[in-house]
Amino acid sequence: MFEIVTSILSEGPICDDCLGRQFAKCSTNLTNKQRGQAIRIVKAMLDNTPANISEWEDAYGTCWVCGGLFNNLDSLVERCLEQLHDYEFANFLVGTKLTGRLAENEEILWAESKTTTAEPLKSALNRELGKRIELLTGKQAEFSRPDILLIVDLARDKVEIHANPLFLSGRYLKFVRGLPQTKWPCRECGGKGCTKCNLTGKMYPESVQELMGPHVLSASRGQDAIFHGAGREDIDARMLGNGRPFVLEIRSPHKRRVNLQELEQVINSSQKKIAVSHLAFADHETVVNVKNTPLDKVYRLRVIYEHPIHKEKVKEALKRLEGDIEQTTPQRVVHRRADLKRRKKVYSAELEGDEIIIRCEGGLYVKELISGDSDRTTPSLSSLLGVNAKVEELDVLQVGGGL
Questions:
Q1: At 200, which CATH number?
Q2: Helix (H) or strand (E) holding 105
Q3: Residue 234 designated active-site
Q4: Strands (DSSP E) along 16-175, which ranges?
Q5: Final residue belonging to a domain, choices 247, 269, 292
Q6: Are residues 270 and 189 in the same domain?
Q7: Which residue is catalytic, options 16, 74, 234, 296?
Q8: I need a labelling partner for 122 at 20 to 30 A (CA). Which of 53, 115, 153, 387 fits?
Q9: What is the pLDDT of residues 169-205, one digit of tens each?
Q10: Which of 110, 136, 163 is the last residue of a domain?
């Protein structure tokens, strides 16, 4: 070991932190600085030479490996705290970007000394900065999904801050027809703005996402809000009953302690087209669950027929509609979805007054269940009645399950 120490010391002045981290794997419950000091003392004793403590301390300003970084940690921490000042966070993580010179110095040292027990400079810096920030803020470092990521960019002499997204889950109701779930770019101009969209860049003037987004961004002081829904209803359908599950992903939030009850009230009182409920703090896994978990649905349909038909005949056909349904991707959406054949289940189909109530498996195209879509859906109400039928009005009454 002390042959390696001698080789390291012969390269030039080196601070205790950089000396000690070359042997970071040799012992536990010691800091790199303590290891470096112990190594110098033991070597001085073995060599029977005076311990030149002032020279060891001077090496913190002249260390050829780190360039004096470990003597300048407090200054870096102060710059990190300045960045954190405007953010709410429960935990954080520090990362560093080394200059090319620092990375090269480390490679030279390892090549010359042949050490195999070293801790990389980046790891040591991240840990030491993190420990100081923990002490000064009372917040804990978090390695998996921190609220805040601090990047100390030594090459550009700057500290960057990245606030990871804030996730809010809930359910929404949509009381009007002709309102899409998310912003729908104009097909003609792709969102740039043209005469067809009145220079808005949108097919529709507003959406569920846009009706709640500004209020959420105001409460969180976020940069952008990305909408994730548990499927979507057609633009001309209302979403009633228990509402549809969704997650809002708020990019770069400055505030994370949002009053969710107050936020619900603000959104719901701002207009009469949608309402939100059950707002709760969520995480990235919730997004995955919302987008990938199949949820059963209940629909209410108002259907028109090619010519008048007796209700008893409709009831009989609806009873025969219960069970497995084979659907090829509908013609109206095949331009944007894979042309596949799917098997879905209708649990019940009943006539209530002049309306049809369908309880079915998630993913069933209920409009095509009525029309048949040129026999791409079998069986269909049209085929069972022997009469062309189509949905005039559609309401979603229930989206099963929770978040």
A1: 3.30.70.2510
A2: helix 100-113
A3: yes
A4: 91-97, 140-141, 148-153, 158-163, 166-174
A5: 292
A6: yes
A7: 234
A8: 53
A9: 999 999 999 999 998 888 888 888 888 888 888 888 8
A10: 163
